[in-house]
Amino acid sequence: MNILGIDVGGSGIKGALVNAETGEMVSERFRIPTPPSRKPQEMADVIAKIVDHFEYKGPVGCGFPTIVKKGVCISAGNLHKSWVGVNIDELLTKTTGNEFTVVNDADAAGYASMNYGIGKGKDGLVIMITIGTGLGSGAFFNGQLIPNFELGQIPYKKYEKIELWAAASAKEREDLSYERWGKRFNKFLKLVELIVSPDLIIVGGGTSKNWKEFSHKINIETDVVKAELMNHAGIIGAAISCLKEQHHGHLAQS
Ligand code: BGC
Predict the structure, then answer these.
(1) Could you tell me the residue range of the domain that residue 56 belongs to?
(2) Is position 239 within any domain?
(3) Which helix (H) or strand (E) holds 67?
(4) Residue 85 CB: number of other CB atoms within 10 A?
(5) 180-228 pLDDT per residue, tens
């Protein structure tokens, strides 16, 4: 059975069909830029275009870049503030006509890595970090997701949250080299290490494909590895989430 997975980001909304048994992507990835307003209906309309592109009629799993509880957006993250309180499942179901299951994007990416990727079989505390417009985080203890970890929200220096200083969007905004940005990312990882003492950190999200450019700047005690599913993890995890989702707003252990 193929499921449509959609990974919603601050700069792009991506979709692909995923084989629900193997967790493999079985179509090309289709991407549409996120509308600059980042408002609910505008974004829902883009998501509907992605569903149409695949002429897909079944249930859709969707990774979303905010805290998500029981389908409801709890924080705005890097999206428009009018998202707070919106039942995302309902809005997307209404707009597309397909049944939607929505989970946090980093939780979805981590879920894919833990079940089909480098995190498979890894016990202890594993933290997935996604680098994109924001810094996403997914936490897994002995393979079980602890939903809605928000490590990118740690306040740092004059910044309300560290992701404003150390995510890919900061690199772009300030036109930083990988050397300089890598130093910031390492600082973020150091704080993560200090606060939650993980056993393993997996790095995914769009920027992880440039791993070679910045991995030499990573210098912490904890093992840090690249998510070999890279930014596809977000789509794969999203697709699978609609099968695994318990009705408590989080992904169940496989
Ligand atoms: C949000 C997180 C999200 C991350 C990555 C942050 O701004 O607070 O929920 O996972 O961005 O998209």
Answers:
(1) 2-104
(2) no
(3) none
(4) 8
(5) 999 999 999 999 999 999 999 999 998 999 999 999 999 999 999 999 8
